[in-house]
Amino acid sequence: MFFSRERRACALQSFLVAPREIASPGARAPAPRAPRAPFTSFKAAETAGNTSRQAPTEGICYRRGMTASAPKAARPATLEDLLAIPEEERRHELIEGSIVEKGAATGEHGAVQRKLSAYVDPYDQRPGGRRPGGWWFATEVDVHFDAANTVRPDVVGWRRDSVPERPRGVPIMARPDWICEILSTNKRNDLIKKKRVYHRHQVPHYWIVDPEEETLAVYRWTQEGYVEILAAERGEQVRAEPFEATPLQVGVLFGDDEDDEPVPEP
Asked: Most CB atoms within 10 A, among 81, 165, 169, 175?
């Protein structure tokens, strides 16, 4: 019978690993060998409770050129995965294909969010009245950008001339014209990952408020990247685009009372 070279090599290996002992006439019979443990596959080992990933080697012979296949990478998360989280528990975002839980909002975070919403409120109406108008605003709503990114900005706005009807649904599909993120425990996402997503989708205006440092940074979209056009701190009054028609006392965001007398602008 003809055997392949690999099979002959396996047979030779088994013979060398466990050589037979030949007893001489009159010699005492050797003690019986312990039976060799049978080959166990990974799957069978795991079923038996062995969670070690050490490969069983006894009795294995590989063909020349055989390699162990690499484990499959986990698939990216999707919008369906995000929405599968129960609504009452969903404080999560889909960022670059990963579901990320938003950091717990601190008291400072919540206060800034309320004060900032009050500041932009005069713009949340039709244009042409006594107040500036021309915008829609929302807080903590899911906004869809692409298959790998559905995020929940702290405060977000849409120009009415580009989005005639108030954005609705979960998630909102219309691209915002202004986003403000208030830094908290997940500040790396706001400063890097989400900022890249906003730039890739050409969100024209991006604000970052830092309650710990008591600062405001205002960014304008350019093709090369966001350009910081304004940096302000507590005690200053600024006109920050796209709401430059209304002066903003930065300290009001961090608990100061609004002064009756205007603060000098830098």
From this structure: 175
Upper half-sphere CA count for residue 118 (Cβ side, 13 Å): 11
- If asked whether residues 58 and 147 sit together in one domain, one would say no
- The answer to whether the CB of 30 falls within 8 A of the CB of 21 is yes
Do 151 and 142 meet the contact criterion of CB atoms below 8 Å apart? yes
The verdict on residue 216 lying in a domain is yes
Nearest to 208 by CA among 218, 200, 196: 218
The whole-model pTM stands at 0.71
Q: Which of 143, 139, 91 is nearest to 115 (CA)?
A: 139
Q: Are residues 48 and 94 in the same domain?
A: no
Give the Cα separation of 105 and 182 in Å (integer): 9
Residue 260 lies in a domain: no
Give SS3 for 226.
Answer: coil
Residue 111 parent element (H or E)? helix 107-120
For residues 176 and 157, is the Cβ–Cβ distance under 8 A?
yes
Q: Please name the amino acid found at residue 72.
A: K
- Name residue 203's beta-bridge partners: none
- Model confidence pLDDT, tens digit, residues 129-173: 888 999 999 999 999 999 999 999 999 999 999 999 999 999 999
